[in-house]
Amino acid sequence: MEFEILQDLVLIFGVSAVLVFALERLNIPSIVGFLIAGVILGPHGFGIIKDMHEIEIFAEIGVILLLFTIGIEFSMHRLLRMKKIVLAGGGSYILFAIGVTAAVFYLMIEQLNESIFFGFLIALSSTAIVMKMLAEKGESDSPHGRVMIGVLIFQDLCVVPLMLLTPALSGEGINVIDVILPITKAGVIVAAVLLSARWIVPGLLHQVVHTKSRELFVIAIILLCIGTALLTSKMGLSLALGAFIAGLIISESEYAHQATSDILPFKDSFIGLFFVSVGMLMNIGYMSDHCLKIGIAVSLIFILKAVIGVVSSLLIKTPLRTSIHAGIGLAQVGEFSFVLAVAGRSAGIITEEFYQIFLSSSVVTMMMTPFMMMIAPVVSRSVTSSRVLKRLVKIQRVSEGEGLPRKREGHVIIIGFGLNGRHLARVLKEADIPYVVLEMNIDTVIDMKKKREPIYYGDGTSKEILNKLSIQNARLLVVAISDPASTRRIVSIARRENPDLYIIVRTRYLAEVDDLRALGADEVIPEEFETAVEIFSRALNKYNFPSNVILDMVDKVREDSYTALRSVELQKKHLFEKCEWLPNIEIDGYRIPDGSHLGDKGIAELRVREKTGITIIAVRRGAEVFTNPSPEFHFRYGDIILFTGERKKMMQALEFFRGN
Questions:
Q1: Predicted confidence band at 360 (pLDDT cuts at 50, 70, 90)?
Q2: Contact at 8 Å (CB) between 310 and 380?
């Protein structure tokens, strides 16, 4: 039996690897490849894997590990910061989804209990797919990303109450004690989690880490995951919820980063295993025989959930464009709906035929989600720019822009008040340069207003709001948001409104540089590139490369539009040995370029020590090294000067050598 399971795992990962590789070449998300692999391997495809019980075990393991990795990336602090979106946005989404779906189905079947249960099934979206897509696109902290994550968190918290209410819809009735007792147990578990996260687990992990055994640390992390999952299962809750709680416990400890680095390398495999198992549940034969019904069901699900998502987002004062984007992203059926559907079938609420239609429709919505999220920015932009909605959007944007400064000149406009925006604002304030900030997170706006920041709530993609920020008279625009589609639109509008405006854009990936420059950005700073520059600069500095050599390399890379990084040839042998025994003294180097003012001049003639306060300790000329050169020593082009001095004098010396 163990060899059959091993054989099935090899087949799953082998077929998945081939499909994901092929689809990546076509820029199709990997999730689709995993789902197709499941369809091919499953009992309803080629029947290579036929044991449905084994498939269900794979799915359960996948969900447990997936929710554990998601939980470890969260924290109670982050959850509290999103409380408005989680409670108001998520609560309204669940209520609207259940109410609207129940009303629609009641008109069709005239069965109240079944209609309400259909609402339960439709109300949940896929945490796994949406969070993975947001992470891959770098949009987890974007306006629409925050809305989607907040709603998903609330949905996951609602799984237990929905499961407890399911027996009441079967007509069997329900005992109040049967509802209160599990909820009380859940409350006790949550309280225990909070206490253990603060007091017990950090102490245990500290003792484990103190042994300096990485193997023991990994075993302890896995034990916490499986143990907590089993504990919640024994108390009537789900294994997946326990795994999420276990991840949350670790996320609250000071060892969260180490745990993340040890566990996350397996994250994609866990996600892949789960999606393969979901694909295995799809019955191709049934779908071909009932394609019309399934097509209608899929269309109805997407329309209902998208509209509900838009309305719920608008209720928490999210801009229409962001609301449409979030609504489309949440329009699929979630993985926990499968659990509810099985419970409903067992309780006799839904028939076997409805279960098959729902199962097929749900998997189709999951498979379509990556594509829906890819077109969401285009759809949201097209809808909000249509004539029918233009007036509504204008009214909303004007409302957003109330209180914006009317007249400014020569100022800086900062869009996005995350880490980069905050640092820039602090520097501008110290330099006494006027600036205004535009931010979409209303909580951030309220907090910063109390600190007297010139910050305003609004959507940067709105021409009206940019005009109220005096975009025509601004000197500089800095776009520092985590929404690629919005960033491109902001740059395009700003360039049209002010052709002379200098635009600096922060982006996540190097691939976006050319597009943003084509739209009008003067400077584009990709995070991944700047990280690479910082790494190779520090690496060369560790080997005492002359600072001007490093700066020249950095300049060359930037001048070549971030394409010369691979072509820079670095000298592999270090130039000088590092001096470690003078803690207050710096050692640096400078290579004299052709045409430098230092060429053919002596040390005494240049008065180096008098003007800079540093001491030249050596000069390298080709393979020859002159130590402690005399005042009469003359420099030549290509010489490398090794000098030392106090830290504050070093930059002054470099400026002198460069002729500034």
A1: confident
A2: no
